[in-house]
């Protein structure tokens, strides 16, 4: 029997008891990466959140079908349906074809995910493998009168869907304010492309024939078409980052509910908050201020230490990045793995079956209650540390509790991730201080710290707002 859990539903803005359509079974869809460059550790925060949800559902006894898409076409550099296709733009920049760009960054994504011990979803589907399903959904919408054509594509008419503002609690009248400026051929600012025509002046690498002419799908339609294909017209949980609420997920709801005629498309919408550099400044590929799992390792920081950092905050709270807190989390991760190894040795071959002691039961109940309470990972981690420090719980029982808790937190505690310390920790902290000085426009202090780091034989690799260090050869 699956146990009861509480989850925050963006649709109602409330923590609710989770009741799936089919008792004991969950259909879960996660918006996957756009594979035009390396996923950054902010993106990976979203996938650690989805993975924690996935592990928790399994832990509480649910049978899971977890689907994640790979966006390898159609995501434009601008959310308002103009600009370049991110994949094609990246192909031009890197001088390789768009299909190779997608392969390269999909492979990198799963390599990074593995380092963060993120489990692979049961179904991973690429947008380009399901073009016919997307065309079929656009046709269904067209037949029901929800679409119109412009010179550059087929658009969804959001005025025909009165529930449009519901998920994002959007102020449509407020949004209309900017319409006169950049409406183009669109009837409303919120209307979005379902199918885009290839520009006859440019040779696209990724394009397909369609009833409306050669072109490619709009970004949002892939998630509707593939989630319906793999999970049905109505399913339980859909995840993504908070940025998806007002546009991507709002559009998914509109086109799916209109195409299928069924409401609600998704019962529980769950969104992970952002990793930010400074208050309100998100880490983002397009802003160029990114760190990747590879950068962490190059700076001597275990990726699973980053997972600890992520779990130390609740998924609905913004997490502000600094090397100082990350180094703290990496140290906590090392303490955990050392304790796990010690306990395993102490436990030896002692049997770990049978009922838990009263103390052990209390700890497990506290852990379960935390995770069932909208994935309260900071509290669950605190319980894990409490177990390790408890002198009354014997090693065999500790080992059993650790295994149980680790199956949910996903820290792989019995296989310590070894990363050579390449950059002295105090230099990383100096880098924090230098970035803070720059943010405060204290150029003299920023310069002093920069020089101090260079004098120690390290180069600063800067992206806007974030940096990492590399030992000068
Ligand atoms: P993308 O590859 O741009 O489609 O984004 C992949 C996922 O990362 C999406 O679920 C985004 O909402 C999420 N995301 C993007 N930036 C951040 C960030 N700074 N912190 C957390 N999640 C993010
Ligand atoms: Zn999506």
Class computed from helices, strands and strand pairing? alpha/beta
How would you describe the shape? globular
* Termini separation: 59 Å
Number of strands: 16
Query: Quick one: biggest sheet?
Result: 5 strands, parallel
How are the strands of the largest sheet arranged? 5-4-3-10-11
Which blocks of ≥5 consecutive residues have pLDDT under 50?
none
Please give the count of helices.
16
Task: Give the topology, please.
Blueprint: E1 6-9, E2 14-17, E3 25-30, H1 41-59, E4 63-70, H2 86-94, H3 98-115, E5 123-126, H4 131-143, E6 147-149, E7 153-156, H5 172-176, H6 179-182, E8 192-197, E9 215-217, H7 219-231, E10 235-241, H8 245-260, E11 266-272, E12 275-278, E13 281-282, H9 293-298, H10 303-311, E14 319-320, H11 323-347, H12 358-372, H13 377-389, H14 395-409, H15 425-439, H16 443-455, E15 458-463, E16 466-471
Parallel strand pairs: 3-4, 3-10, 4-5, 10-11, 12-14
Antiparallel strand pairs: 1-2, 6-7, 7-8, 8-9, 12-13, 15-16
Write structural notes for this entry:
By secondary structure, this protein is an alpha/beta fold. It is 44% helix and 16% strand. The chain has 16 helices and 16 strands. The protein has helices at 41-59, 86-94, 98-115, 131-143, 172-176, 179-182, 219-231, 245-260, 293-298, 303-311, 323-347, 358-372, 377-389, 395-409, 425-439, 443-455, and strands spanning 6-9, 14-17, 25-30, 63-70, 123-126, 147-149, 153-156, 192-197, 215-217, 235-241, 266-272, 275-278, 281-282, 319-320, 458-463, 466-471. The strands form 5 sheets. The chain has a 5-stranded parallel sheet with strand order 5-4-3-10-11, sandwiched between helices. Strands 6-7-8-9 form a 4-stranded antiparallel sheet. A hairpin with a 2-residue loop joins strand 15 (458-463) and strand 16. Helix 7 (219-231) packs across helix 8 (245-260). The structure holds adenosine monophosphate (AMP) and zinc ion (ZN).
């Amino acid at each position: 029997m699956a146990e009861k859990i509480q989850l925050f539903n963006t649709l109602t803005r409330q923590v609710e008891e989770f009741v799936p359509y089919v008792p004991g079974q969950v259909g879960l869809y996660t918006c996957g990466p756009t594979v035009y460059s390396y996923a950054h550790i902010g993106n990976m925060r979203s996938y650690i959140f989805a993975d924690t949800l996935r592990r928790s559902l399994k832990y509480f006894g649910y049978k899971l079908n977890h689907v994640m898409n790979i966006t390898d076409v159609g995501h434009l550099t601008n959310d308002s349906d103009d600009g370049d296709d991110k994949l094609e733009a990246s192909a031009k920049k890197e001088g390789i074809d768009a299909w190779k760009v997608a392969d390269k960054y999909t492979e990198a994504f799963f390599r990074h995910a593995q380092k963060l011990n993120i489990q692979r979803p049961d179904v991973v589907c690429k947008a380009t493998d399901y073009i016919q399903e997307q065309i079929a959904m656009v046709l269904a919408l067209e037949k029901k009168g929800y679409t119109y054509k412009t010179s550059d594509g087929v658009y969804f008419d959001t005025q025909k869907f009165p529930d449009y503002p519901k998920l994002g609690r959007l102020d449509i009248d407020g949004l209309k304010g900017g319409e006169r400026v950049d409406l183009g051929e669109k009837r409303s600012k919120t209307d979005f492309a379902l199918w885009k025509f290839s520009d006859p002046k440019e040779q696209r690498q990724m394009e397909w024939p369609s009833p409306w002419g050669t072109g490619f799908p709009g970004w949002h339609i892939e998630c509707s078409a593939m989630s319906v294909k793999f999970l049905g017209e109505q399913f339980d949980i859909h995840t993504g980052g908070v940025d998806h609420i007002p546009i991507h997920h709002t559009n998914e709801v509109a086109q799916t509910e209109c195409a299928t005629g069924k409401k609600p498309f998704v019962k529980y919408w769950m969104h992970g908050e952002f990793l930010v550099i400074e208050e309100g400044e998100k880490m983002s590929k397009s802003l160029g201020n990114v760190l990747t799992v590879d950068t962490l390792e190059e700076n001597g920081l275990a990726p699973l230490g980053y997972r600890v950092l992520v779990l130390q905050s609740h998924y609905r709270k913004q997490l502000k990045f600094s090397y100082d807190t990350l180094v703290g989390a990496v140290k906590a991760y090392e303490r955990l793995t050392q304790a796990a190894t010690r306990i395993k040795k102490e436990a030896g071959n002692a049997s770990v079956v049978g009922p838990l002691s009263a103390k052990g039961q209390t700890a497990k109940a506290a852990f379960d209650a935390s995770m069932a309470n909208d994935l309260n990972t900071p509290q669950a981690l605190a319980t894990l540390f409490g177990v390790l420090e408890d002198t009354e719980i014997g090693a065999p029982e500790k080992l059993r509790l650790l295994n149980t808790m680790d199956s949910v937190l996903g820290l792989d505690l019995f296989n310590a991730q070894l990363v050579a310390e390449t950059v002295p920790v105090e230099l990383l902290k100096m880098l924090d201080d230098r970035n803070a000085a720059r943010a405060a426009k204290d150029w003299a202090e920023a310069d002093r710290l920069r020089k101090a780091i260079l004098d120690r034989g390290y180069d600063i690799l800067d992206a806007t707002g974030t940096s990492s260090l590399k030992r000068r050869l």
